[in-house]
Amino acid sequence: GTIVRRHRIPLPPPHEDQFYTIDHFNISIEVILYARRYKIIDCDQFTKNFLRKMGVRLNPPTSRPDDPYTKERQKVLDSMKPLRPYERIDTLKQFLEHNGHVLRFFCVWDDPESMFHDPRELVLHYYLSDDTIDIKEIVPVNSGRDAVPLFLRRDKLPKYAPTGLYQPGTITSRTVLNVFGKSVGDRGRYILDNRKTGAVHQEFYRDSDLKIGAVINVWGRKVILCDCDEFTKEYYRTKYGI
Fold it and tell me: Where is each DM10 domain found (predicted)?
């Protein structure tokens, strides 16, 4: 909170009949306010410009002294770091920077199994917070098709590998190195492998793979990206210069 409220502060004895003015302040000096000694280590740019216009020669700024509590606290945190390998999964930064930012593409899928081979209009949403994709189908009125909530539920969309798609459960986000205990829920412990030794790696569609005119493989269905909204266009202009 406020240590000293706004008012005229008298100088320390034996000049207590006088008050502090702008001439008493500079960088790297000490001031005494009501028997408390404060050291000025730096000031903002506006104050520097003001003092220079007043003809004051500013001293170079000094470094902030170390806080004993912060140093001791850091020693405690360093001693608590585990020595065994563990998996580092940090997605908080991406979530905080892009929470609520969604790229929207307007797509077309030519269904080869359709009776009249009419194109299916789709809307693809790419969520920048976690790199997931969902697709909704635009069903025209009186088209005879059933309106489903989602054409593709929100998840990471894998790229179609030459050997085919992996079965569910083949790829996991965590690799267990060792397990201690009887079972999960009976206070069992496990160690995760941060290097993912022997793990199966699979590529997923990223924002760099999506552009107007591109063809993506949605679980065996070739979907053409035809257009996007203004936010998506501005995003690609700013990040990729497209």
Answer: 1-55, 99-240
